[in-house]
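Section 3.1: Structural characterization of target chains.
Under the original work plan, the team committed to producing a structural model for every single-chain target entering the pipeline before any wet-lab resources were allocated. The record below documents one such target. The sequence was received from the expression subgroup and is listed exactly as submitted; it comprises 160 residues.
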Amino acid sequence: MRITGVCFAACLAVLVASTAGAEETSELSYQRFAEDQGPDHPLYCMYGYFASKTGDHETAHRIFRRCVEGARNPAAMIYLSHFYEEGIGTEPDKAKARELILQAAELGYSVAQYLLGSELLGDAENEDDRRQALVWLKRAAEQGDEDARDLLDSEGSAGG
């Protein structure tokens, strides 16, 4: 079992390293694999992460956009949101980032619900804004998100 894990890690490292900075995509590249598969393949969206880590933000954006548009993948929504929030490989776009987090939260993804709730809470200008933030935090906490529970406790609203 350990040898299999080491072999997998080594093969993955070779795959990622062999494609970093490559002008063309080889048969073993993550770009080729991703393009050959599509957003419904369980590993497809993971290749967006690999592309980003190798500095290939253009490929990462393309993969994550396909995962969002085709497979409605909430993890890809969060990654793409982060790219827009921080301006990674694109111009910063806070509205687009917020919309992606909202989509993932509406799909029931607790991490997105926590992120949305905490962001809304930080931006709250009135009691209605605060209530909306707490709704998202409570949804995340109900799914076991400890960060959401901690934030609700600190806000004094875990019970109500």
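Residues 2-19 form the longest helix (18 residues).
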